[in-house]
Amino acid sequence: MRNVSYNTCNIILYKQKYLITMKSYKKIKNYTPKKFKRTVGISKDDFLNLCDKAENRIEKEKEQNRLKKRGLKDSEMSLRDRILLMLY
């Protein structure tokens, strides 16, 4: 197994396949503002603003369309991690 680490993720060669693991928000939330922006691509304030707007939009959508949430399971990833994944 071979492991290469970058700012945003780790790339692991395992059984002739590459596995990419991303850093979660829990790991990068305490980064300095400069390192956070270098890692994510936007400032921490902009990222948190984006998360708040997405959360408000999701809640509004759930209130308007009550039938859409029926049968759906919550994601195992937090909203912040899903937005990080989108930005990577």
Key words describing this protein structure:
single chain, alpha+beta
Q: What does it look like?
A:
- This protein is of the alpha+beta class.
- It has a domain at 25-68 and 77-88.
- It contains four helices and three strands; from the N terminus they run βββαααα.
- The longest helix has 21 residues, at 44-64.
- The two termini are 24 Å apart.
Concise account of the structure shown:
This protein is α+β, with helices and mostly antiparallel strands and about 90 residues long.
Map the helices and strands:
Blueprint: E1 2-5, E2 9-14, E3 17-22, H1 25-28, H2 33-40, H3 44-64, H4 79-87
Antiparallel strand pairs: 1-2, 2-3
Please outline the major beta sheet. 3 strands, antiparallel
Beta-strand content estimate:
15-25%
Count of beta strands? 3
Radius of gyration: 16 Å
The SS-based structural class is alpha+beta
Morphology = flat
Question: Portion of residues in helices?
Answer: 40-55%
Span from first to last CA?
Answer: 24 Å
- Walk across the major sheet and give the strand order: 1-2-3
The succession of helices and strands, N to C, reads EEEHHHH
Oligomeric form: single chain
